[in-house]
Amino acid sequence: WLAAHPSDAGLLHALGLLCRRRSLWGKARNYLEAAVAIHPCALTHLSLAELLESLGESTAALPHLRAAAGFAARQD
Q1: String of b and e for 36-61 (b: at least 16 CB within 10 Å)?
Q2: Is 24 exposed, middle or buried (0-12, 13-18, 19+ CB in 10 A)?
């Protein structure tokens, strides 16, 4: 599916979550970063922030937490 839909942010997000579940940290990060670049949204920013936090990269996670909060605040 990825070869046929390389710009599908939802697919990239799902692949990132699957890779995280399988402890494929680098792949998970790449997919989530690609998803955020294509279609930024609260859920993907939050997923990426959680991954980065779990990898001990709190400084890198912070902008994604802020972005997720910004998207969430605009929903209200």
Answers
A1: bebeebbebbbbbbbbbeeeeeeeeb
A2: middle
CA triplet 40, 44, 56: central angle to 5 degrees? 120
Tens place of pLDDT for every residue, the chain, 76 residues?
888 888 999 999 999 999 999 999 999 999 999 999 999 999 999 999 999 999 999 999 999 999 999 998 887 5
What is the pTM for the complete model shown? 0.91
CA distance 55 to 7: 26
Report the distance separating Cα 22 and Cα 74, nearest Å.
33
Distance of CA 30 to the CA centre of its chain: 9
Query: Do residues 48 and 64 make contact, with C-beta atoms less than 8 angstroms apart?
Result: yes
